[in-house]
Amino acid sequence: MAETLKPLVFYDFPSKKPGVNAWNPNTWKTRYSLNYKGIPYKTIWVEYPDVASTLKAAGIAPHPTTRKPDGSPMYTLPVIVDPNTGTSVSDSLLIADYLDKTYPDKPILIPAGTRALHEAFLDALTPNFYPTMRFSMLKICEILNPRSEAYIREARKNDVLKMLNAASIEDVYPKGDEAEVEWKKFEEGMKNVAKWMDSNDRFVMGDTISFADFVLGGFLQANKKMWGEQSKEWKDIASWDGGRWGRLLEDLQKYDRDD
Amino acid sequence: MAETLKPLVFYDFPSKKPGVNAWNPNTWKTRYSLNYKGIPYKTIWVEYPDVASTLKAAGIAPHPTTRKPDGSPMYTLPVIVDPNTGTSVSDSLLIADYLDKTYPDKPILIPAGTRALHEAFLDALTPNFYPTMRFSMLKICEILNPRSEAYIREARKNDVLKMLNAASIEDVYPKGDEAEVEWKKFEEGMKNVAKWMDSNDRFVMGDTISFADFVLGGFLQANKKMWGEQSKEWKDIASWDGGRWGRLLEDLQKYDRDD
Fold it and tell me: Domain named GST N-terminal: which ranges (chains A, B) (predicted)?
């Protein structure tokens, strides 16, 4: 099958920032997955306000479980369409399942027996990644094209900003002493995650790369792109926990293709 | 070595409740671990106010990381002492590590590569188990001998009750409509955990038993002992998620020794 594999279609979010292509932590999970398995694909870049209409037009179903606040179906990225099987899949973890099942002779993303542990890993990360939110909402706006930026600013008013009782993304961006406190929380969150691992292990599963590394890698890629590789902030993140986060992105560099 | 293995010493908390021996969710993790590996051991039952003095007298170190609110060292159970190697270990996960490393020819608790995923699994469980706290604080008092009960009631005043701004364990025990709401939260928490797994899988890692099952099993055992096997509450828990929690304890029954 490998010889004749037609390229998959992979939907991702574009960037206006010079030198930055893929930047979204969730689509990076799938991008890493595809690159690691060595599966050919072509990226279709979609602006946020066009996601639902683009996927609908391509006959792709909404996310199987994620819903809008009003309970209606929601279209999210990443999505892949596999012309070799006629299948489309939403959600990075479900895409990993699909790729392992359909292409079991290529490197495995979720080693046998670890599916539920991977789910728990994703759940356990959430509170540790949460402190970045107040920073990243604004930094992402610097990456988005104007139509996506407007769309995201409106969407945040109806979820995170409503929850925080704030008017704008700028209002919640930590400033002055608060910025130091919030940055420290971010560092503490990453320290919690680092503690799960042996400091000598390069990957979550030790010497074996797995989808869990692509979840961490996606989050780190997003930060690297948001802050900029030469920024004080990224250098800080990359240095935390004995430099393990910078080293992880280096170790994953050969799966970095993002065109 | 198996032929000449001297029994390990295993420290656990006693019960005054008729028909209940081991009941603590944390010591059950180790009890299951020892039973699963088939390692001989003898239980020493210790009342809460005697834990520190008993372990100190036996030359055992406090927990390596857990601290009292004032920052001083803390003695916790489970603890094992292995006379075959002269080693003592606190903390159920570290005991699992020790047992796998020292007795690698016996069934493995933490399969290769899954150590960090197990840590994440433990972290991910915490918020899902949290809704039981307001129930279990009182139900545990029905199991404890009077000296332990007095000790635990005093300890809770300085942590959970202070946090909840409440005077007594009785005050926070959910009553009437609130009991229904809180019980529902418990059910929702267990549903979150069940969602990580394939409904056909008996164990967290599928067909393979691992330490993760003993963490769930310990929590379920504690509930079964607190509520009583014939109680409405235990029957309810055992029935949730297609009966998977009752079935798990049945599947683990051969590792149930608790003398």
Answer: 14-107
Residues A128 and A193: beta-carbon distance below 8 Å: yes
Q: Are A57 and A138 found together in one domain?
A: no
Helix, strand or coil, per DSSP, at residue A90 = strand
Confidence of residue B70 (pLDDT cuts 50, 70, 90): confident
DSSP state of A78: -
Please give the sequence-ordered ranges of beta strands (E in DSSP) within chain A, or none if there are none: 8-12, 41-45, 79-82, 87-90
Q: What is the ipTM of this complex?
A: 0.94
Q: Which runs of consecutive H residues, i.e. helices, occur in B92-210?
A: 92-102, 115-129, 133-141, 146-158, 160-164, 169-172, 176-196
**Looking at the 3D structure of chain B, how many domains does it have?**
2
- Rounded to whole angstroms, the Cα distance separating A77 from A13 reads 8
Tell me the percentage of chain A whose pLDDT exceeds 70.
99
CB count within 10 Å of CB B1 equals 8
Interface of A with B (CB under 8 A): 111-121, 123-125, 127, 192, 195-198, 201, 204-208, 210, 212
Chain A residues close to B204, C-beta within 8 Å = 116-117
Which residues span the domain enclosing B97? 2-102
Q: Which of B119, B99, B109 shows the shortest CA–CA distance to A117?
A: B119
